[in-house]
């Protein structure tokens, strides 16, 4: 599985489900005004967690999910989970890897309404850490403790040279206790790699 972050809450996940079944999943494609330079992204599956996205940046004819429910498309399981007074969170399962993208989750307790139970065990957690309308560093660290993923990918935080009202991810790293955080342009990972991890953090550079 390959994961690329394009900034904000936008990811492209490419999964080799079978020898002849390569599936591309795009989450929350960005609008121009975000300041990130995002190419047109090809997608078989498109997940929308908020109304801040730009569908004109998507190539292909993807299966669009923009609300709660359970779906299976091209061998990928996707579940939208409605979080009151917040965006939609998504669970993805492919290659025996379970990913949770929390969208622009607000500060309310994720234990409310059985949301934590719906999320379940998670291999990779994509979580906002920059505050503003989403989680700040302290709140994000608390949710990480509850979900207990193998790997954390922070999102929705201030990236250098791009004007933003968000905070940087530095406070989150400090609270989590990670001083040497690995940075890379793309994450290539398999289930066996994740099983060796415990709350590891990887920073993907847009």
What percent strand?
Answer: 35-45%
Largest beta-sheet details? 8 strands, mixed
The CATH first-level class comes to: Alpha Beta
The figure for the number of domains is: 1
Please give the radius of gyration in angstroms. Answer: 16 Å
Quick one: overall form?
globular
Q: What's the CATH architecture?
A: 4-Layer Sandwich
> Which residue ranges are poorly predicted, with pLDDT under 50 across at least 5 consecutive positions?
none
Helix content: 10-25%
Task: Give the SSE string.
Answer: EEEEEEEEEEEHEHEHEEHE
Task: Find the count of extended strands (DSSP E, 2+ residues).
Answer: 16
Mean pLDDT: 86
* Spatial order of strands in the largest sheet: 8-9-10-11-12-13-16-14
| Distance linking N and C termini | 18 Å
Number of helices: 4
Description:
The chain has one domain (2-204): Metallo-beta-lactamase, Chain A (4-Layer Sandwich), CATH 3.60.15.10. The longest helix is centred in the C-terminal third of the chain and has 11 residues, at 137-147. By secondary structure, it is mostly beta strands. An eight-stranded mixed beta sheet has the order 8-9-10-11-12-13-16-14. It has four helices and 16 strands.
